[in-house]
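1st attempt posting a full record on here, be nice pls
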Amino acid sequence: MSTTSTATRPARARRGVAAASAGVVLGLTLSACAGATAAQQSESGKTVFRYQGGTGTVSYPELADDLGYFEDVELEWIGDVTGGPASIQAAVTGETEFGGAFNGAIAKLQSTGAPVTSVISYYGADEKTFGGYYTLEGSPITSARDLVGKKVGVNTLGAQWETLLKEWLAREGLTPDEIAQVELVVVPPVNLEQTLREGQIDVAALSGVVKEKAVDRGGLELLVDDTDLYGSFAYGTYLLRDDVIAKNPDAVEDFVQGTARAIRWAQTTPVEEVRERFTTIITERDRGETTDLVPYWKSSSLPTPGGVIQEEEISVWVDWLEQDGQVEKGALQVDELYTNEFNPYADGTFAPDAGPDGEEVAP
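the predicted structure (as tokens):
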């Protein structure tokens, strides 16, 4: 597997018509295309990239900004978001310049003809950082089949945890009719643990620092985690609209290189130092947040240096969507959905094992 694949920018005309289930997103996409404009310039002459953040967490673009890795880009926070689908919809409609989500949700969006391209991975799973489906200790639910007729709490529909659940159930031999009997309940991430402990749902999909905090309190049992299904793997990417890429190529290159270097900084810096930096960033931005989640950060969760996108991290979900009937077979060409051309760890600027400034790092 190569970590230096450089897919070209997408040729949207070669894409097929999306499945009917994507019609709502298609309408949203068409209205967005009519009103999309170039990114604005700040008083200092930098290109402004509006974005949505996460309460009590630090994203890699925010880390890059704090580390001084951007030269041409100025970030503008417009609020927080709780799920990937909402994040990428904001990017499509022009509310923000970039958004991030599960790659399967992005592929579904792209199947509608949405003019967006993934440019860098930003979250995944590894041996230190992973998510999974949890029950309460002593629950009679111990297998995939036990979920038939039960309620599973997820942060949003049409994203990673719905897709992974269906994949696991299918691998365990459940029929489509049986899988349809597993009820998905949308619960905000910060409320998933409490909702599970109160018995309002039977299983909760927990990930990130929210999962770490819940597990630390005890009383939970893991059914299956995402590394059981795909191993060390990147699950989500940041995307930009193609008009942003076309009209602001220098700023886009700066955004990706800075974000990649921030990811690499987190990958090569001692955990405690990363946590200290996150705490400082959250405290100094003064949004009335808590830093309680920071101590639960363990790793970048990304398998490649600087978030370089690997083809199979996209293709596996395209295949899944086709098999599930959500996307017409052949409607999506994987190499048109993403690009590594701006990433210094893929385009030859930095060696794959280099640090955030191109210096050699210990293996």
